[in-house]
Amino acid sequence: MADKDTFTFQLLTRPGCHLCEKLLNDLVPWHDEYKLSIELIDISNSEQLTAEYAGRIPVLRSENQIICEYFLDEDRLKNYLENHQNIN
User: Fold this and answer.
1) Residue 63 and which of 9, 18, 49, 82 are 20 to 30 A apart at CA?
2) pLDDT tens digits along 47-67
3) What is the 3-state secondary structure (H, E, C) of the chain?
4) Is it true that the peptide bond before 58 is cis, omega within 30 degrees of 0?
5) Burial class (CB in 10 A: 0-12, 13-18, 19+), 69
6) pTM for this structure?
7) Is the per-residue pLDDT at 2 higher than 70?
C-alpha cells in the first residue's frame, strides 16, 4: 500500500477497452469513502500479462489478489476494503 491510509490497486487494461474505462469510472464513488490509488497496467506491454489476462480484462487486483474481472464487483471490493482497513 502506498501509505497506511491508502489502498493501492492495479487495474489491468489495454488501449480501447471500453469495459476497462467503465470499471475505472465505477471506482470514482469509492474515493469518497476510501483512499484508493489505482495504477493502470497496460497488458499489451507484457507478453506474460497478455497471455494470462487478455481474455479477462479489466482485472482489478491488489497485492496479487484479484478483486474482480470484467465489471466492478462492489460486494467483493467492499469486503476487501473492510477486511484490510485495520491492517493499514
Assistant:
1) 18
2) 999 999 999 999 999 987 999
3) CCCCCCEEEEEEECCCCHHHHHHHHHCCCHHHHCCEEEEEEEHHHCHHHHHHHCCCCCEEEECCEEEEECCCCHHHHHHHHHHHCCCC
4) yes
5) middle
6) 0.88
7) no
| Gyration radius of the chain's alpha carbons | 13
What is the spatial order of strands in the sheet that 59-62 belongs to? 36-42, 7-13, 59-62, 65-69
**Alpha carbon separation from 1 to 10, 57, 66, 74 (Å, rounded):** 11, 22, 15, 20
* Vertex 69: Cα angle to 49 and 42 (nearest 5): 35
End-to-end CA distance of the chain: 8
Q: Which three cell numbers stand for residue 24?
A: 475505472
The answer to whether residues 69 and 40 touch, using CB atoms and an 8 Å cutoff, is: no
